């Protein structure tokens, strides 16, 4: 099915494939937008913590920034996916509202609370109520191009946050890392595209293995936790198929025990391990141990390796592979990858909820 271009086109009327092909350019375009933004009213010396408010595809950029910068940035970073804010948020906080639509209700509530507490603020959006707030209150605004599903705008939710941190002096210049990442992603388009046969296409091959099963995506809990969350979300939204993720070493202190009484679940599960040269050697040992336990129970396991030299390129190489896998899973499931109708139904129900 995923070798037949007519079937692919039939199940992808909105051309999600074009968004996957155009993903590399988002990183450079998003970076330029952040460089062009007026940040003169932000006072870096008064910032003691960074908080990113967002949901779904708009929040994952914050998760990835936190995971990428964890070894070097000296400020605590929090990603808030809720209506509320932690008590520590105040005048020494930089709060970034990231909402592609500008109308995400959780983000509007939490960001409104940040304004009440006197935090320094920045808004990243295409428009909506957040853009109105930015213009009314003279808040730095990064306006993104519209018309994309938020999950297909990751370059626009990630590189502006990275570039803001760079401009404010919280991290070093990232130009070389961004350039390498874009090059890796462009190469990935040539590896994973619809014209590449399954025999030479890791994304198609992995999609066929996952199809009809429940994937559990395992990563370390340092740099690749957000990557696992991204892949999980893409399978859920694009393929309309359940996926879960877990991190090590934490997994070994609880879930590991659960791999004893599977009942009839074993044949329905598939474990996907995210591998990288930078993962702690003891975490690698733990992953191998878990993998051996699963194999003995008849559970299929897969290990996928990152590619690239720099950390950012390695993170995004796995993200891109996950994006393409979720796309081919959608085709195998005979699902249009773009609509998320049940989320739209929920939003309509919430609009009528008193």
Keywords:
14 helices, alpha/beta, four-stranded parallel sheet, about 15% strand, 9 strands, Rossmann fold, about 350 residues, 2 domains, five-stranded parallel sheet
Largest sheet: 5 strands, parallel
Helix content: 40-55%
Flag low-confidence runs. Answer: none
Please, how many domains? Answer: 2
Shape, principal axes of CA atoms: globular
Kindly report how far apart the N and C termini lie: 46 Å
CATH superfamily of the largest domain: Glucose-6-phosphate isomerase like protein, domain 1
Main structural class: alpha/beta
The chain-level mean pLDDT equals 97
Q: What would you say the CATH architecture of the largest domain is?
A: 3-Layer(aba) Sandwich
So how many helices?
14
Tell how many strands the DSSP assignment holds: 9
Strand content: 5-15%
């Amino acid at each position: 099915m995923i070798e037949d271009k007519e079937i692919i086109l039939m199940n992808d009327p909105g051309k999600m494939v074009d968004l996957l092909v155009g993903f590399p350019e988002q990183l450079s375009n998003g970076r330029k937008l952040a460089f062009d933004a007026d940040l003169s009213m932000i006072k870096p010396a008064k910032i003691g913590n960074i908080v990113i408010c967002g949901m779904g595809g708009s929040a994952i950029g914050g998760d990835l920034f936190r995971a990428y910068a964890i070894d070097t940035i000296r400020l605590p970073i929090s990603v808030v996916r809720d209506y509320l804010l932690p008590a520590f948020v105040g005048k020494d906080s930089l709060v970034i509202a990231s909402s592609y639509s500008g109308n995400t209700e959780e983000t509007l509530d939490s960001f409104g609370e940040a304004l009440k507490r006197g935090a320094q603020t920045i808004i990243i959006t295409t428009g909506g109520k957040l853009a109105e707030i930015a213009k009314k209150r003279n808040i730095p605004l990064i306006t993104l191009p519209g018309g994309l599903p938020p999950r297909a705008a990751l370059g626009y939710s990630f590189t502006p946050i990275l570039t803001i941190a760079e401009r404010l002096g919280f991290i070093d210049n990232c130009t070389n890392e961004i350039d390498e990442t874009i090059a890796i992603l462009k190469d990935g388009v040539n590896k994973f595209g619809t014209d590449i046969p399954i025999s030479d296409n890791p994304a198609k091959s992995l999609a066929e293995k996952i199809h009809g099963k429940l994937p559990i995506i395992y990563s370390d809990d340092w740099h690749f936790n957000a990557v696992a969350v991204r892949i999980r979300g893409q399978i859920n939204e694009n393929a309309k198929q359940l996926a879960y993720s877990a991190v090590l070493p934490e997994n070994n202190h609880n879930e590991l025990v659960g791999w004893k009484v599977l009942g009839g679940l074993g044949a329905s599960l598939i474990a996907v391990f995210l591998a990288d040269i930078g993962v702690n050697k003891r975490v690698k040992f733990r992953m191998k141990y878990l993998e051996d336990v699963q194999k003995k129970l008849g559970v299929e396991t897969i290990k996928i390796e990152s590619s690239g030299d720099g950390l950012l390129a390695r993170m995004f190489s796995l993200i891109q592979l996950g994006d393409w896998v979720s796309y081919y899973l959608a085709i195998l499931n005979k699902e249009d990858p773009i609509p998320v109708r049940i989320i739209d139904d929920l939003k309509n129900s919430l609009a009528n909820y008193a």
